[in-house]
Design goal:
The chain has 495 residues and is an alpha/beta fold. Among the domains are: 136 residues, Rossmann fold (3-Layer(aba) Sandwich); 96 residues, GMP Synthetase, Chain A, domain 3 (2-Layer Sandwich). Helices cover 33% and strands 27% of the residues. It contains 15 helices and 26 strands. A 5-stranded mixed β-sheet has the order 11-12-13-14-15. A hairpin with a 2-residue loop joins strand 22 and strand 23. Helix 2 packs across helix 3. Bound molecules: malonyl-coenzyme A and adenosine monophosphate (AMP).
């Protein structure tokens, strides 16, 4: 019985370089043997992990991929943890997904030990995982659940998005086809590996194709630019914030460096932007500097990628193009009518093999997220001259900052545990670099003071840095509407 197609394909790429990590090239053969060793070690004599949830906190590296493939090959569900999470956020994922074991590299053991001890979860050291033994691995069909990614929504705490192997394969193959991935491609990986952008679009598409994925580490503009100047890459994928940050550096660079960097970008065959709206002005500035026309696409953890500008043909600034192969899209009006005409806005709803199977352990939320088999994205869009344009989200409580999706409700719930805060409302303010930045309006408790620097310090051990409010407004009362609900658009205008 064959293994996953991703793994079967890797066998045909053999000695080619799969990943560059820690200054070393690693072949597809070594990825296969390391992941088989990890699978055998996790199985520890059993024949199938039977969808056991195994979490791991590992940065982009050969080891990350070996662990992900090892869990998959042993029949488990991979639960990647975020390197930027604070302990309460890690605890939520570990307990919500009912994770049984957690894998880390040696240097992260101490960081996770207290939490794992408190939760009575075994913490495994990668170095001690590998087994030389070659065991028969279980048969996996496409419907087996493969991965849980946590994403914020309109519920307070992040929900686990469950994808099957068939979902992930569909998410990969649609992009390989649409964007012409080839085995001679080479791509830098500097995005976080607990979200689809880094995991599917960059890493898995690259490995599916026999290409080279260069694990750069957390985004460092200077490091990335030097590697680009070395003409190491054919494909580049990033969120809009990264393009804004790179533009700033290119504009300040001296003539010689500017030429090195822009030549490196100009010779690539494809540069993609997504995860948040790419302002048309940034699109045009990038073309002016590098002569590359960015390809903007639209996606979501629950569906992988849904809409894309074309590889060949017009890449329209401010638009996200058309449905990817195998993805079916419709727009639905507020009153539930399917919109047929151009120019009329509606909610994007999606069908297709790429659409996730369920929210982990949340059957009611899963049911409410679908209508007649269509997944409701909560994003508004309009079709104009054959291309979709994203207009924004239905909920004011969803914020996108630096490409991360944040729940205002989750941040509020944490801030409300601060003893000096009586009431608060979190909103996203438009920002050129970050897309949106988190801002909070606070009503202090009787006789208390709330100041931003103290609040930031207090929040640092409770939430990821990108969720921490960057702006604070003290109010006597939060503005409410006639129904007694906090009026966030009004609050946003007060900043
Ligand atoms: C960090 N900072 C922020 C911030 N994030 N300030 C405002 N808003 C934010 N969101 C501040 C820090 O506090 C710090 O401040 C300074 O910026 C540098 O922090 P950093 O963490 O070093 O930032 P940097 O490395 O530059 O991070 C930027 C980034 C990162 C763009 C590389 O945010 C990132 O990797 N984003 C990608 C997220 C992603 O992959 N999303 C995809 C989700 S999947 P100070 O004062 O301490 O210096 C999805 C589906 C799809 O969306 O369609 O793809
Ligand atoms: P996530 O839940 O992190 O996967 O984020 C998915 C959300 O990112 C979508 O629902 C959109 O709101 C947003 N998004 C992704 N790509 C784009 C894009 N090109 N333009 C605007 N918004 C986008």
């Amino acid at each position: 019985m064959p293994e996953l197609e991703l793994v079967e394909r890797a066998k045909t790429f053999g000695a080619r370089v799969a990943l560059t990590s820690g200054g070393q090239d690693h072949s597809y053969d070594s990825l296969l043997s390391a992941s088989a060793g990890i699978a055998a070690s996790l199985l520890d004599g059993s024949t199938d992990l039977g969808e056991e949830r195994v979490a791991y906190l590992i940065g982009a590296s050969f080891e990350y991929t070996a662990v992900q493939w090892g869990i998959w090959r042993a029949g488990g569900i991979a639960v990647p943890l975020s390197l930027s999470s604070a302990d309460p956020e890690l605890e939520h994922v570990i307990t919500d997904a009912q994770v049984d074991r957690i894998i880390v590299l040696e240097h992260s053991l101490e960081k996770l030990r207290p939490l794992c001890d408190r939760l009575s979860k075994p913490l495994l050291n990668y170095d001690q995982l590998s087994s030389e033994e070659s065991l028969p691995l279980p048969d996996l069909d496409g419907e087996r659940r493969a991965m849980i990614l946590y994403t914020s929504g309109t519920t307070s705490k992040p929900k686990g998005v469950v994808s099957t192997h068939a979902n992930i394969q569909a998410q990969i193959t649609t992009l390989v086809e649409a964007w012409g991935w080839q085995s001679d491609d080479s791509i830098p990986l500097f995005l976080p590996l607990h979200h689809v952008h880094g995991i599917v679009n960059v890493m898995s598409c690259g490995l599916w194709s026999g290409a080279r994925v260069d694990c750069v580490g957390p985004f460092d503009a200077t490091e990335v630019l030097e590697r680009v100047a070395d003409r190491q890459y054919t494909v580049f994928m990033a969120v809009p914030t990264i393009y804004v940050k790179l533009i700033r550096i290119l504009e300040d660079a001296d003539e010689k460096d500017l030429a090195r960097f822009t030549d490196g970008f100009a010779q690539m065959r494809l540069m993609v932007s997504g995860s948040a709206a790419l302002p048309a002005s940034v699109h045009e500035q990038w073309t002016g500097l590098t002569s590359q026309k960015l390809l903007e696409r639209y996606g979501m953890t629950e569906i992988g990628m849904g809409l894309s500008n074309p590889l060949h043909g017009e890449r329209r600034p401010g638009a996200v193009g058309q449905p990817l192969p195998g993805v079916v899209i419709r727009l639905v009006s507020e009153s539930g009518e399917v919109i047929e005409a151009e120019g009329e806005p509606g909610e994007i709803q999606v069908r297709g093999p790429c659409v996730f199977s369920e929210y982990w352990d949340k059957p009611d939320v899963t049911r409410d997220s679908f209508v007649d088999g269509w997944f409701r994205t909560g994003d508004m869009s309009v079709l104009e001259d054959g291309y979709y344009r994203i207009m924004g989200r239905l909920s004011v409580d969803i914020i996108k900052s630096g490409g991360y999706k944040l729940s205002a409700l989750e941040i509020e719930a944490t801030l409300l545990t601060h003893p000096a805060i009586r009431e608060c409302a979190v909103v996203g303010l438009p920002d050129h670099t970050w897309g949106e930045v988190v801002a909070v309006a606070v009503v202090a408790a009787e006789g208390e003071q709330v100041e931003l620097p103290d609040l930031k310090e207090w929040a640092a051990s409770r939430m990821s840095a990108y969720k921490i409010p960057k702006t604070l407004l003290l109010l006597e009362d939060l503005p409410k509407n006639a129904m007694g609900k906090v009026t966030k658009p009004v609050i946003r205008d007060l900043f």
